[in-house]
Specification:
Blueprint lengths: L14 H8 L3 E8 L6 E10 L9 E7 L3 H9 L2 H13 L9 E6 L6 E6 L5 E2 L8 H17 L23 H16 L5 H10 L3 H6 L6 E3 L8 E3 L8 E3 L6 E3 L1 H12 L2 H21 L10 H7 L2 H13 L4 H21 L6
Antiparallel strand pairs: 1-2, 2-3, 3-5, 4-5, 6-8, 7-10, 8-9
Helix pairs in contact: 4-8, 4-9, 5-11, 6-12, 8-10, 8-11, 8-12, 11-12
Amino acid sequence: MSQTDPIPAPTDINALWLTQNLGLNVSAVSAHAVGTGQVGATYRFVLTHANRDASGPASLIGKFMSEDPVSRATGIAQLSYVREVKFYQHYGNTKPLPIPTARYAMVDEATHEFALLMDDFPAHRPGNQLTPATLEEARLAMLAGASIHAAWWGDSGLDTHAWLNGSQAASGMNVDALFDMLWPAFCARYADQINDQIRATGEAYLGRINDWITQRPGPRCLTHGDFRPDNMLFHEADLAHPLVIVDWQTAGVGNGATDIAYYLGTALTPEMRRTHELDLVHLWTSHLLKAGVPKADTQSLWDIYRRDALAGFLMGVLASMIVEQTPRGDAMFLAMCARAASMVEDHRSFELI
């Protein structure tokens, strides 16, 4: 396998390809589309091993470019495909993390065609953005977040990668201009589905998002960037993998509190978040400390968490307007915006910029 090898399409993943590229002695393969992602196309490949006693995987998950032209163009423009593959090439398989192991990760940086084959967790249940997370799911998310954030806490090497969101080596994006352009379209599309709190939040941040991004304080670490239930697989009885984090198309470098604010602000109902967020944020910081993060680095994380309540709202507005529109997507983005807007108001987040 080399960078000059052609990038396989889903239809190329057959028994011969798996034998030649992954060393699996497979006699048959069947493919089925899975997942609810809107930027990539995801398939489950069910494998029939030539040797019944083989210890290889029963199935694999494969990710490829979206088949929708709008979503595909977004994935290319946002470097989403390149970013996810490079995350697995540089970080994904190098430390114990709550993520799938990648068995094949290749991308053509000229065309952005890519293929990513990973271990499957068919017994796990996918999270659902439309159903508020349970307290146990939220606790597992805090522990997973801590393990990811602590793994490269304060690592200056993160800022050498131009493909990582927020990296000092990456070209800056004028998010104010993008938000100013898409916010009126968002309001027009969803009209009376937008409550006063959503409108007030969007208006409060017009012309202020670049400042919010550039002023992010605190120690830097690897971040997921889209840390929410749809990108999580749960199986509480699996002690080795009770939660698996997937979809690393938004991987970046920043403050881990942003991921935590994004999750708690969009995955929980406002009532549940208000009741449990202090304990949940403490659970996250306590596990950072257990993983070796200096105590001094955790002192300001609550204020950063409050400040970054905007993260989920911003994703809800922008993503809804640049990917394929679907009924589920509309409901999901509106739920994200409504929950995050409540968090912004509760913490008066815009005053912390």
